[in-house]
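Spend some time on this chain, tokens included, and walk me through the fold:

. . .
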Amino acid sequence: MTQHTTFNAIPTNAIKAEALTSMSASFERFCLAAGLEALTEMLEADAVSACGPRHGRGRSRQAHRWGKTTGKIGFHGGKVELERPRLRGFDGKEQALPSWEAAQSEDWLGRWAMNQMLINVSTRKFQRSMRLPEGGVPAQKGAGLSKSAASRHFVALSAARLKEWMASDLSGLDLLVIQIDGIHMDEDMTLVAALGVDATGDKHPLGLAEGATENAATVQALIDNLVERGLDPAVPRLFIIDGSKALSKAIRATFGRDVAIQRCQIHKARNIMDRLPKSMHAQVRRVLRQAWEMDDALKAEQLLRNLARRLEKDWEGVSASILEGLDEMLTVTRLGLPAELRRSLACTNIIENVTGTVRRVCRNVKYWRSPSMALRWAGAAMQEAAKGFRRLKAHKQLPLLKAALAVRKAKTASSNEHLDQTAKAA
């Protein structure tokens, strides 16, 4: 009778019997042996299905037995060796066993390595994190638990997932809101990320682009990728940015000069406060909050202009900062959105939370070898962040946003047509 061996050359039934006697200390070993024994039976069943019973004859056979060999299969605790039958077809070529192919395609070890690294387990501690101290399953040489093996697992799986994500189709997403922001990875390395909110309030990480700085070319590369994947530039949407001129330039170049852009009010307030003495913070912050909470955009704009006028004499630079980009500061107010929806869409908090997840996941990386490495890590982190996404707080009011964007587009189209007719008449 053939005995099937594991990586430590002990029969699976012997491992199971030994572990069963001390299950409290070796339950992991018992489960491993039981699983290997079940897989061995499945492999033998595949061989019988293709070749018939041993020493049997018949025209229904699709292959014949060709001895046995050992192969490694990964599970969440490492790699183990297993003896399996070999089959040869009548054409002389090796014939695969369906159960073995299925077991290897699972890639449990690679997925486990990626999961461990996403929760900040370093490669040096990877082996320790995979094995229970009293589990009774030793990690032999070649078990795939070294720091270099863990790194290879992460590189392969994160690269495959990034490629799949950056090629995914966006045409099926009814995106109403898109937030774009930069992530500074290193001194000369910046990633630009995009995140969308659809008509039901669900959030979707959309893509990444790498560049030396957060310039218009980098942002344009990201937008071009989104358009190639099915993002229709003709559909009216609200873009939310942190105030970068490069972002505005690239967005207008693709979606038109009249596209709805909302600058982050939190970033604007922070920039203003950082340039004023603490004695003035409470007063200025009160005026800003009052302006942003108004339902009337004209009154809110007038309130901000009055604030800039009062500061102009002693704080000319701060006054100019308040007036700079004033139209984009009140976009959500001009759209006539409810206060609750305005609070959700007047800032870049959604993508800032994703950026925080990227920084947490990448904190163990001390040296970025290349932009592709940063893309892999950031892409994996954004997909990890997506697992914890919740609907937009005011998602029930998003139909109002959709209607307001449609009305705004119709008005701007009519206005542009009138201007063109006037120019031709002149």
Observations:
- Confidence is low (pLDDT under 50) at residues 1-10.
- The beta strands are 63-75, 78-89, 94-95, 175-186, 189-198, 203-211, 238-241, 260-263.
- The radius of gyration is 30 Å.
